Amino acid sequence: MITIGQILRQRQQLLQRLAQFPDILNGSFFERELNGKARLYLSRIVNGTQRQVYISHKHRATVENALKQYRELQKIIDQLCETNLQLLKLSKDGQWPTLDDTANGNNVESL
Fold it and tell me: What is the pTM (predicted TM-score) of this model?
């Protein structure tokens, strides 16, 4: 049986992991040939419009790493959403439980 305290600690760990991703980019990274030369682009949707940004070859590794960080960040956010949903289900009064609540035994149950 998982307790609300365990869920809250899991949420805190997820929130701390978010700070590990300062250099993020979203979009699609691709290469296309123009005038016989390979060109790199980052394609993004901005306000409903597709935007393509030229990326120099010297920035390729940086952009690829930033896109990877974005995907990892999305996974953490999905886990955080699931954790928050568990907390809402366990809350009796409609308020987000806190670690203080678990210490005092207020308004919390365990799964």
Answer: 0.76
